[in-house]
Amino acid sequence: MGSLVWRVFAAAVLAALLLVASTAVAIWWTARQDARPSSDAIVVLGSAQYNGVPSSIFEARLEHAAALWEDGVAPVVVTVGGKAAGDQFTEAEAGRDYLLDAGVPAESLLAVPEGVDTLESMRAVGTAFDERGWSDAVLVTDPWHAMRAERMAEDAGISAESSPTRQGPAVQTRATQFRYILRETAAYLLYRVTGESIAGAPGIG
């Protein structure tokens, strides 16, 4: 009996390790993709902002979204994200204002000022899409965040592909990339098991 219990335990541990490893590889693979299909909107996932000024991570996403808009990927750029206690600006508002200054016209921008993490943000964007009869989106976020963002968007009723930014702190060094992949692996598996999101570093919650 003891031998059987040990074999079952060893098989369970091996299965768990294989699941973690395969998820990490899938996150790495998705991060290397760059999909730019014609869509209803480009959705920029929010990150930290400071008194209306996007953080370096957020700025890299916004610059990439502006380039996609200029290339005609979609007629509208959606910025999304709420604000922390004490903040005067939401992430969505900071992103919208940055894109306005970058030359994207107001009629091509939509701010969805909701969400303290990716899951809440994607649900808010899903509602905004439903109200406008939209269905397709290109998501702009950091490479390692792309797979979980796509999954959450699909669960919110959006047909989503991602075009991750290749700039910013999240992609500067191999050590940083490895750390983000580990965090995203844990966050993705938690979401698939519980349907919940977690708080963490920018782009992780």
From TrEMBL:
Gene3D superfamilies per the UniProt record, alphabetical: HUPs (3.40.50.620)
Recorded GO CC terms: plasma membrane
Leader sequence segment: 1-26
Keyword set, alphabetical order: Signal
InterPro entries: Cell_Envelope_Assoc (IPR051599), DUF218 (IPR003848), Rossmann-like_a/b/a_fold (IPR014729)
Residue ranges of every copy of the DUF218 domain listed in the record: 40-186
One family name in Pfam for this protein: DUF218
Taxonomy, superkingdom: Bacteria
Alphabetized PANTHER family for the sequence: DUF218 DOMAIN-CONTAINING PROTEIN, INNER MEMBRANE PROTEIN, PROBABLE PERMEASE
Protein name: Uncharacterized SAM-binding protein YcdF, DUF218 family
Organism, as annotated: Geodermatophilus saharensis
